[in-house]
Amino acid sequence: MIVSEIGYPRGRGTMPTSSSNLVHVLEIHQASIEEKITSLAFQGLANREGSRVFYKARFWNWPRSDEFWMDYLAQNKGFRFEQVETLSDLIRLYPGVANGLVVWDPKIEQTKWIAVIMAGLDGLLPVSPECVERYGKLPVCEDLRNRFSSEIEAATWSVKKLIHRCNLKMGYSIDRTWSGVTIDALDYAVQQRSFVYNLNHGGKSPAEIELVHEILSRIGPVAPIFGWGEPEDAYCQTISFHDNYVMCAEAPNLSFWKHVPCERTDWRQRARKNPSDFVLDNKHYIAFCTSEGDTPKMAVSVEGGAWLDPNRGKLPVNWGMNPLHLDLFPAIMEFYWNTATENDYFIGGASGAGYTYPNCMPNPEAWMKQTGEYFARADMHETDAWMHFSRPVYELYAKLSGIRAFAMPCGPFGCTLLNDGEAVAFFRGNSGLNYFNSSGHPKDLATQIKQHCWKRKRPSFSVAHLVPDDRRNPTAQGGWNPTLLLEVAELLGKEFKIVTMQELTELAIRALNEGKCPDCCEPGYSEWDEPDSI
Question: pTM to 2 decimals?
């Protein structure tokens, strides 16, 4: 199954005309969770016919992204934005979008998500009991109050009665995480008629995990599960067990982006070079790679604002990107490809075209082939990959996808050849460079790189895995930007070379094949080579 079969746009789309370019804007960042659920459901319904409703969500990853995108879309896509004051005002502007109300039971949390499912299936507006009068012109079509005696009863009912009516080529998981309830992309779930669930993936409740497996067995295979769940390892593992993959979708306005037109048809990367141009020197080669590239949230937040850094383009930076966006949200990818410099190189986020644990997939072949198709379309050739290395799995992955390199957080540190010497896996291991301190000073990162490379003979090949952020956002998780990385590069000195993942990959394959670099999977390999003087 390719992602475009879900019903997503594939190709160029249609530029808005004078009658369709008006977009209504509503601020929701100060609304309660309950109000946001109602608002997001309506946005998903309204945007089924086109990009008509845009919300100022002030998403924590970069709150200024709303204004940035509105300005970009006005200048480059011809949209006109008009503010409305309340959701009631917005509903009046779109008569017929909502057929009626579905009222959830405030005593049973699961009924909120049942109401959201019904919103997508039947065009209903999910509301709390106290808000029924606010939308009095809409009839109450479903009332979920006093219908269930427990959370698990309600969740089980939704699987028995509703899931067969949903779009089973995707799913949406709700959870309460450190950043809040994962409802930011609920508009997209409603727009796409997704099944929505809120269950623990970590095995705390046998009844819940049994129901999770039942849900995931109905969805896909090779289907995206939007939203998020904790703990991350159990969440991703459970989804992988069913040959599906994670789309961490803490991202606003995805239902809007679905219909934004894309004119670009040539996706060749500007930063790609002829491999014969790369010269293997006696250097420590370092690739700065941004993480979270699998997530729509990072693309929508303009890489946490780091993409707008004034020093972007002055040194190679490898930006994680999900090539599924070619069909999901092509106009977002178009923005990055159009504005990339010769030093902005795109690689896959974990673990390719969607975040999964390939080792845990019973039948990974279809997902691996799909990843290869999307990487070829996007002119992408390397990817971050999680979590642990299994040679048979990654030999198969390299062969079926054509991917040239996998950068992994596992250990021991080093690299090893795959696919008869045509591909390579890099392991960050104990390098200290996996998710390096997001609030650290450039000298801290430079010191860590030097201490790590002091143990290696040259040439050596290392990946620094970093969160992108502009560092001016107190609500975000912190991170790194080109200005900070430029300072790191200056502190490292002439024994080091900052490179794209393409150059790191081609030179590492060459060095391994020529015996100039140890294979970390060979018997007798030691991480403690003779120290280099640096």
Answer: 0.94
